[in-house]
Amino acid sequence: MPSYTLYYFDLDARAELIRLILAYAGIEYKEVNYSFQDWPQAKAKFPFQAIPVLEVDGKQIAQSGAIVRYLARVAGIEGKTTDEKAKADMYTDTFTQDIVEKAYQHRIPFFEADEEKRKEKAQVFLKEKLIPFCDQLEETYKKNGGGPWFCGETFTVADLAYFRMINNVMDLVQQIPTPHPEIRANYERTAKIPRIAEYQKNKKERPF
Predict the structure, then answer these.
(1) Strand partners, 31
(2) Which of 81, 54, 207, 201 is nearest to 151 (CA)?
(3) Residue 153, exposed/middle/buried by CB under 10 A (0-12, 13-18, 19+)?
């Protein structure tokens, strides 16, 4: 069994999907968290001076997207066919780049120190981005066969990426007036996977 070490800050952010895949696969790993104060002295030992980094038997893999794809292959959830693999990557990148990454603008004080302005930005994000996104995703999900997973009958990293996305913006999702029964059911199915349920039960609370 390879030895895994995940290096990141004590945040969900770009490491949370990585943790979910590790949990799903039942992979034991060590996690090393850096404070923002310690990071400038530590970054020189990592590729591109950035984290997250996954170390596998002493060999480092940088960039969160590359780590996610690597672990998806290790866990066997990258998709069974070429089409499924492409679709899984498509969904995973979209959930991460279009929602999770853009939500930081209203969630992180670094981008906006004023709490009231962050609340205003959150409402703009909800109305102009999240609601239209979920409306379109519901229709796309139906056109692709309606599940039970984003790649049809095959559970893939895309389902974990969607689960991560919803958890990231759950406070706003609960304000969406339009029901999205298909994608909501997908989230609930993922939440019931035993290892995911156990991970969420014991998950450390982090600021974002």
Answers:
(1) 6
(2) 81
(3) exposed
Token pair of 123 as six digits: 């409402």
Instruction: Among 103-107, 108-112, 174-178, name the most confident range.
Output: 174-178
Mean predicted confidence (pLDDT) in 175-181 = 93
Question: Which residue has tokens 């866990």?
Answer: 75
Q: For the residues of 16-41, what is the DSSP string, one character each?
A: HHHHHHHHHHT---EEEEE-TTTHHH
Q: Please, what's the b/e burial string for 118-142 (b: 16 or more CB within 10 A of its CB; e: otherwise)?
A: beebbeebbeebbbebbeebbeebe
Task: Tell me the HSE value of 141 on the side-chain side, using a 13 A CA sphere.
Answer: 23
Over residues 37-92, the pLDDT tens digits come to 999 999 999 999 999 999 999 999 999 999 999 999 999 999 999 999 999 999 99
DSSP state of 47: G
Predicted pLDDT of residue 208: 83
- Pairing between strand 4-9 and 59-62? unpaired
Q: Which residue has the tokens 């853009």?
A: 102
Contacts of 28 (CB under 8 A, 6+ apart): 1, 4
Q: How distant, in Å, are the alpha carbons of 108, 130, 199 from that of 118?
A: 8, 16, 29
Residue 34, H or E segment: strand 30-34
**Which amino acid is present at 24?**
Y
